[in-house]
Specification:
This protein has 144 residues and is of the alpha+beta class. Helix 1 packs across helix 3. The protein is globular. The chain has four helices and five strands; from the N terminus they run E-E-E-H-E-H-E-H-H. The strands form two sheets. It has a three-stranded antiparallel β-sheet, with no helix packed on it. It has a two-stranded antiparallel sheet with strand order 4-5. Helix content is 34%, strand content 24%. The chain starts with 8 loop residues before the first strand and ends in an 11-residue tail after the last helix.
Length: 144
């Protein structure tokens, strides 16, 4: 097994502004109507955007490994969530997304069946899809 560790950090600033430190730092925020300043995507958008981004990246890797002339991939994701739970208005249900859908357009000289098989392999190898569909342990610690 070839484990490697991905490390990011977040620092909450004024209001809902959260500065993310990673290979390409960015800001996560909330819309003005939710109390933020709309200086970046919200956490739910960041989370969901990682799925189509990963599908695109893994598609490129698979295509390169197989010698497929992949001209492009477009992936559109949408997800359903019960905001009443995350806002503390109910204890019924769950905090996470209850359904995630991704529509993928593959621009390559492949039959429809080949595209379906290709996408299945991409989805199987996508770490984001794997984490969304499976269970990964999460441990949070309070530090001084």
């Amino acid at each position: 097994m070839a484990l490697s560790t991905v490390t990011v950090s977040a620092v909450m600033k004024d209001s809902f502004r959260t500065e993310i430190q990673c290979s390409n730092p960015f800001v996560i925020d909330q819309p003005v109507g939710a109390g933020g300043k709309n200086e970046g995507p919200n956490p739910l958008e960041v989370f969901i955007s990682s799925l189509p981004a990963c599908i695109c990246a893994i598609a490129r890797i698979v295509a390169m490994q197989r010698g497929i002339a992949l001209r492009g991939v477009e992936a559109h994701a949408e997800a359903d969530i019960d905001k009443d739970f995350l806002l503390g208005k109910t204890t019924e249900g769950r905090a996470g997304f209850v359904a995630i859908r991704v529509n993928v357009k593959i621009d390559a000289d492949m039959t429809e069946a080949e595209k379906v098989a290709f996408l299945h392999e991409v989805e199987k190898r996508c770490p984001i899809a794997d984490n969304m569909a499976g269970t990964t342990s999460i441990t949070a610690h309070v530090v001084a």
